[in-house]
Amino acid sequence: MDIFINFFNAAVLAGTPLLFGTLGEILTEKSGNLNLGVEGMMFMGAVSGLAAVFLLEVGLGIEIAGALAVLIAIAGAFIAGALGAFIYSVLVVSLRTQQNVTGLALTIFGIGFGNFFGEYFGRTSPIGFMTVSLSARQGFSNLSIPVLSDIPILGPLLFSYNILVYLAVVIAVAMAFFLSRTRWGLNLRAVGENPATADAASINVTRYKYLATCIGGGICGIGGMYISMVTTSGVWVHNSVQGFGWIAVALVIFATWSPKRALVGSLVFGGLTVMRFYVPLGIPMQIYDTFPFLATILVLIVTSIRQIKEHSPPAQLGINYFREER
Amino acid sequence: MQPAIQTHNLTKTFDQVVANDRVSFDVRRGEILALLGENGSGKTTLMNMLFGIYFPDSGEIEVGGKEVSILSPKDAYDLGIGMVHQHFKLVDILTAADNIVLGLDTGALLNRKAYTQEIREISERYGFGLDPEKKIYNMSVSEKQTVEIVKVLYRGAEILILDEPTAVLTPQETERLFVTLRNMREDGKAIVIITHKLHEVLAVSDRVHILRKGKSIATVNTAETNQQELTEMMVGRSISLKIDRPVCEKCCDKLDIKGLNCLTPDGVKALQNVSFTLKAGEILGVAGIAGSGQKELCEALAGLYPVASGSVMFCDEDEGKIELAGKTPKEIARLGVSMAFVPEDRLGMGLVANMDMTDNVMLRYYDKGKGPFVDRKSSRTLAESLIEQLAIVTPGVSKPVRRMSGGNVQKVLLGREIASAPEVLIVAYPVRGLDINSSYTIYDLLNQQKQKGVAVLFIGEDLDVLLELADRILVLCGGQISGIVDAAATTKEEVGLLMTHVPGSDTDKPVEEVSSS
Lengths: 326, 517
Hints:
The complex is a heterodimer of chains A (326) and B (517).
Chain A: H1 2-30, H2 38-60, H3 66-94, H4 99-124, H5 134-138, H6 154-158, H7 163-181, H8 183-193, H9 195-200, H10 205-231, H11 244-254, H12 259-278, H13 285-306
Chain B: E1 3-14, E2 17-23, E3 26-28, E4 31-36, H1 43-50, E5 58-63, E6 66-68, H2 73-78, E7 81-84, H3 96-101, H4 112-126, H5 141-154, E8 159-163, H6 171-186, E9 190-195, H7 198-204, E10 207-212, E11 215-221, H8 227-235, E12 253-263, E13 269-279, E14 283-287, H9 294-301, E15 309-316, E16 320-323, H10 329-334, E17 339-342, H11 346-350, H12 357-362, H13 376-389, H14 406-419, E18 424-428, H15 436-451, E19 455-459, H16 463-469, E20 472-477, E21 480-486, H17 492-500, H18 509-516
Parallel strand pairs in B: 4-9, 4-10, 7-8, 8-9, 14-19, 14-20, 17-18, 18-19
Antiparallel strand pairs in B: 1-2, 1-3, 1-5, 5-6, 10-11, 12-13, 12-15, 15-16, 20-21
Helix pairs in contact in B: 13-14, 14-15
């Protein structure tokens, strides 16, 4: 039982940055923008979230309390991710550049942005690397909720995580509600499915695309910050985000563009990435590493066989919209 | 009386093509105005300007006597203008109700229950019989159109624009639509209906505004005009509405089809024991209710649909009979049989919408180049000569074909196929969605081919045309041949009867029993 709980905990912790990335990309793709820059935006969020707290602490010469540090890091990461997505939106929505190329460029830019500023701020620090104070770090440690955390089994299973894990779950549930129950959600889905129709229905296609892409990018940025604040405990580690953004892009397909299924998907993928520590199968480590990708392929096959319309990508995904195009 | 909408000298240009050139017209409340013009005459462009999809280069629009600037569909809706598009503007994965309320501003949360009920009430009041909770992708074409009309009504539009609403409807559905339109007219709404079908103009409209090559030609009262006059104004010269039928000269057998059976992927019989002979130098018309096996027949002959059993013999003058059944188009071509197929789905199966004319022409000859290289030059020459011969209107051979109007697209496709000098030419619904002038050009082209000794299989839907153009008419009913009749000797009624039942079949027996008892 303990092994299971440990494995589950590790899966949740490993899956949360993926969940942020996936949710951000789902929101983006619902607007019809296929932003392959998730990896880049996560890097930007990772360095900015950490740097925001680091620079404030260095600049003011104080130690920021945990809760405040969380807010500052979220704001920094969100703004950085959204900024990356904004660059993408200007290029893709306004200037109508090709989406895949632009997304790849954003990834390359974001990786460079993250590693450059990560190293640069590290050099300015007296200890040689960028890190935040112990008190700031405590904001990202696992919570101990009175009563709930003490319930046997359920307590450690559900109520023993850091605040960002719960934030991700809240965003997932809120996004599911937003997409299915609100007018803006309906409009956004229409924009991604058929922008010409949305346009004819007097929906401002450009605004929806910009907003969804930028907010989606901001959420991806928080996912990056999770890695620099939680996974590496508030220390900038070169290339720390590597690969997470790409798995998130695959997870969007795994989740068939549903925020609720993204919850399950990120847990499964989180589990698959840490499986080698908890489930000894006597096989080489590299084979474990292929599991998330094998799972993606399996899901792709199953979803394409079942051909359910509701599980398909937004119909106009990856295609730019120009009203006067004939 | 104050016009509901009035335009002054509206002009709109795309690339080098002037789509609308100083167009001025008006529509009043409580009337149906028909906007008549050939394909590419700028009807849709004009309506898209009224609806804020395009913005005019110059000219004014007045709504209710006030000059307005319609920058977006939202502005149009605010002015009470609603449009039912030729290509439906619906989101497939949403329900009818969600599509209808899409873009409306009524609070953050969706009150599905309330608006579904409202839509159900509108549907019942007009007798549309629409299920608001049905998803669009499960709907037939006429149901989708109903959704579009309910959408406009739900928004309380006072001015309705319908872009070729009947193009996709059966005659019965068209009549039902006209009844609703007349009801709306009685209700004091201003209705603009875009069409190129003359009998519909005469049946439903009060006045007609005619456009030709983007210019306003005239506005006439429907009661004071006739088909011939409207045609002349629309085309710009007098044309005969009669279709030629040259005599079949070199009438030897070309294709001999025996006992052809085809199954759909679900195992249902799509074609059942089909046997007939297609002669060189004749046009064999194929009639039937939509989905009676026409598509499967064409594709089976062209080598695109799997043949379960039966034979398709090609009769070659020199080499005798060649079996084609079960062969791919490439194998058929390699046997020296020149067969051309103009499919129903022009921009899906026939041409690649995003490629230019040269590349589309080259699709037929891509393997004719030297080694791994394609021969673009001769395709370009052919494309240029097609533009000249068939009077295709296009900004140039290097522009994507999707920018052309339907008639011009069909000319490119048919022209390409004819240029391959086929011995057998299969055409499926070649004039669907085309205006009169383009249609007659297509008929002439087919007749030319026939006189050259080509065997033409013509799948049609307009019985009047089949009766005039074809030499013989093959009638399909539920995948079976219910009869092959001489077009000159038969009547519309006889063909219509054959379309609905096969003489001597099982379904026919109960009728006989009733009549004998």
